Amino acid sequence: MSKITKSLFGDLEGKSIYRFTLYNNKGNCVSIINYGAIITSWRVQDKDIVAGFGNLKDYINNDAYFGCIAGRYANRIAAGKFRINGNLYELARNNGKNHLHGGNKGFDKVVWDTGSNEMEEQPLSLHYLSKDGEEGYPGNLKVKVEYDYTDDEELIIGYFAETDKATPVNLTSHCYFNLTGDVSKNILDHSLLINADHYTPVNESQIPTGEIKAVGETAFDFKEMTTIAGNNSTMEAGYDHNFVLNKNGDPFSFAASLVAPEDDLQLSVFTTEPGLQLYTGNFLDGHLINRDGKPINQHSALCLETQHFPDSPNQPGFPPCILLPGKKYFSKTVYKISYNGKAAREIQTKEG
Ligand code: GAL
User: What is the value of pTM for the model shown?
Assistant: First the structure.
């Protein structure tokens, strides 16, 4: 078992916010705070591969969901409405006329419970009770997220939930990656492979049309490793789209691989989820400042969000997302680092 260290990160509404750091035997570490269950840092060799801030205030004030767990329903729900068994539910509309990432105060903006144990060993477990009616959602939802960082460089995220009324649930990690460790370098130069033959086209307010469309040889074709910039030539702002992952009957499967331009670090993603939202930081505009003082600009970092498809509560053709009382929600995603080129040589030298 690898170790966890704990230090005070700040205070909010009379509650202590801690930073937990999960180490592996390579000396690399992932830090998580119990505000928003946010991943604040992932240090690999000499780089921090996630963009983020050095203090709690910046996390509280950020409007871009940095490193958080997004929920109760990550991504958009059209017009903030859905029906279950004929009952209409109306949610907070916090993204134009739509609902986004759980509403005005989603799981990204709440203090998660660290439980009674001292958590000196992994996994780190964070709990949150989302009350019946919160942001308009039905049912008391008990949520648990577990973080585990292994000696094989896998960051394993386990998501668990139970409810007392039928409710949509869709949980994801909203980490912003830049594998160069330098947010002044544009992530459009990273290469990406997505294990998806299809994606879900969206309308002008980013709500899926319901179609599941073949990526063909379009800008959505990441079936082979290709630079994002190269593929993106026809798309102005970048990507903010859901890809339909190829599952081939395997519930836990390979979703994507991202490679830094110098080709030394590779991040691979595996998941039980049916979809992957590729968000290339299109709305980032330099007003948020990274922990090292550098502005986080458009395309400074990207998210690979494993999840159910956007607006699933209103889309009968999409995989179902309604959790029923007595049933258990479980989802698992692994982000795994591997080394190429210079990084691999450094590891070899260290290991003798
Ligand atoms: C992404 C979403 C984007 C944007 C972003 C937060 O998950 O796909 O449209 O809302 O979060 O700024």
Answer: 0.96
